[in-house]
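quick one before i forget lol
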Amino acid sequence: MSKEKPPKVAMVVGATGATGQVLMASLLASDHYSEVIVLHYRTTPWRDHLKVREIVLSLDQLQDLEPGLTVDVLFCCLGTTIKKAGSKPAFAKVDRDYVLALGQWAVSHGQPSFHLISAHGADKRSLAFYMKVKGEAESGLKRMGLRSLSIYQPSLLHGERNEFRLMESIGFYVMSLLGSLPVSGLKTLRPTRIEALAKLMYQQSLLDVSGLQVFRPSDIAVCE
């Protein structure tokens, strides 16, 4: 008779983002998770939730995170824009440097399964700065030898956000139109629903898999 696996402990970085919020709802409602650690630079709406342990800490001070912290799954939902970050170096710090720092922490602290939100088209050799940074983050994590690394490469994310992004809204309609055309190569341009991405991340986190898994827009769309 097989024994039922004990509930997991998750850490979510970027919980207040669009995908992070949807993912948090699934984790907090799940019997498969006994505790959700929210690592954020300021207090969050979940600080008083019975299942949540909030750690207020800047990722610049990740080395100060308590050494005995035990985590089974680490969700990295970090993501900003150059406009919001204020500069290209500031953007790279969030979307690459912080991601790699979290990967190094995971390697040194029990090897939790690592789930990263990246982007479709991420490539460290890309001439597009955004895609280059995303690709550098992916490449760096792959070299670390993480026990279990899942990389999610959504197309343009679509769903409810706390902020209005004009260019993203325009991009949604343009990419929706292109993705609807009867051309196979254009179907990957269809926007990815935030709810579908969060659902896939949650489902994959329940599986005991090792090695590298990469999920592209068509894989994520299955959860719509």
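fyi The chain has seven helices and nine strands.
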